[in-house]
Amino acid sequence: MFDKIKNLSKDTLIYGTNTIIGRFLGFFLVPFYTNKFLPEEYGIITIIYSYIAILNVFFSIGLESGYMKFASTREVGTEKQNFSTPYIIVLFNSFLLSCLIFFFSSELTSVFQIDSSYGYLIKYSAVILFFDTIVLIPFALLRLNNKAKSFAGIKITNIVLNVLLNIILISFFNFGIEAVFISNLIASIVTFILLLPLLKKNFSFSINKDLLKELLKFSLPWIPAGIAANLVQIIDRPILKYLTDDKIVGIYTANYKLGIFMMLVVSMFEFAWRPFFLNNAKEPDAKKIFSKVLTIFVLFCSVVFLIISFFIEDIVKINLPFNYNLIGKAYWEGLEIVPVILFAYILYGIYINFMAGIYIEKKTKYLPLITGAGAVANIISNFILIPEYSYMGAAISTLISYAVMMTGIFLVSQKYYKINYEYKKVGLIFLSLLTVSGLYFYLENNFQIYWLYKFGFLFLFIIIILVFKVVNLKSLKILTKN
């Protein structure tokens, strides 16, 4: 069992190296933008990208997930048919939608909540969406075939190019916020070009009708589910814009992005987790393995939560080159939301853990209900909390929605694919986390806490975990041994 978990750890580390490098290169743009653009301007960028995230679901129509499911089991059709059938549908669908958005960009400015003078940014967005969508299945093929290095190389190339183009266009050619979209578009086109050899090798002009039926049956529920999931992640920004202004949206988004530290952990795990549970579902001790994975995941995330929550203010205020900070000083007032966002990402990571049962038993029809409940909870709580608590209300709403989604997917997965999780250990981890962090934040609000004391609180958490034997040191040695 531990050998398989160790393999998952290695895959997570490989994808994680790519994810960490990529995300941090991308995150470099946050201090760059927040030191170059006013909060109002940054707010416009985040609003448009919020809608791009929603539109992504309509472009991919869930076929990336469907491809991974059926290509991993090869239940219907040949290897090339499993690749080509979903790819042809995605290609046609994304081209059609991109054309509609491009040619009706002027009419869509009000939908995107931007001034009509920014209609040209929607044109850029339409083309970005097209190229970002038609590389999804080739990237999924790389993941499924454990081509982590190729996956990482292309992803990092995309991000490095994007970052460099932003710097060049904004710093040397004095472009405005349009530079963000131009850079993204060029990077997306280059990514497609790099994947062309893989596409040529695996593509054929044929559609397997039986496979298509199975794919659509499995994947179409991802459309409403994906819309709802994206609403959970980004609907707070349009609602903030509606209830407040671009400045509040900019401050909130900049501090929300500091959740990157937890998002990195969740993202690198997710990349490795999906192919792992699909490939190990038929193992006799699969459920026992999945149970242990959850415990290790929650413990690791808890340590990350405490480190970032304790030191985020110190990290943000470090002076960077060019007299920059991690985020501009005008955005510091929103730092209080960071621990809330970090904890929300932990719940999202647990949601991803629970997703194994939905995939294995092909119960994706429940995903729209689960994510829909999360989206509804998010929207309602945003309208209730934002007028009273501003961006903190939006952060709490995100936490609430992920809690709803986590609960929903747990109930459905346990019904069809029951796993006896280590409830006592997971409960002790959360109890220890809440106790230590609660004590820290209480004291922080009343006293000045120095670095040494922050390390003391982190050490206290580790001591509690060891005293209650949540972690078996022998098992940890096995997992960390080369």
Helical percent range? over 70%
Q: Count the helices. How many? A: 22
As a percent range, the share of strand residues is under 5%
Largest β-sheet summary: none
The outline comes out as globular
Rg on CA atoms, Å: 22 Å
Query: What is the count of structural domains?
Result: 2
Which regions are unreliable across 5 or more consecutive residues at pLDDT < 50?
none
- Overall strand count: 0
Mean pLDDT score: 84
What is the H/E string? Answer: HHHHHHHHHHHHHHHHHHHHHH
Counting helices, strands and paired strands, the structural category is mainly alpha
* Alpha-carbon distance between the two ends: 16 Å
Describe the fold and architecture:
With 482 residues, this protein is mainly α. Helix 3 runs antiparallel to helix 12. The longest helix has 31 residues.
Condensed summary:
Helix content is 80%, strand content 0%. The protein is an all-alpha fold. The mean pLDDT is 84.
Helices and strands in order, then pairings?
Elements (H helix, E strand, L loop, with lengths): L1 H26 L1 H8 L2 H22 L2 H11 L5 H25 L1 H4 L10 H15 L2 H9 L3 H25 L5 H25 L6 H11 L2 H13 L1 H8 L2 H11 L3 H21 L5 H31 L21 H23 L6 H23 L1 H26 L6 H22 L6 H17 L5 H8 L2
Helix pairs in contact: 1-9, 1-15, 1-22, 3-7, 3-12, 3-14, 4-5, 4-8, 4-11, 5-7, 5-11, 7-10, 9-10, 12-18, 13-14, 13-18, 14-19, 15-16, 15-17, 16-17, 16-20, 16-21, 17-19, 18-19, 20-21
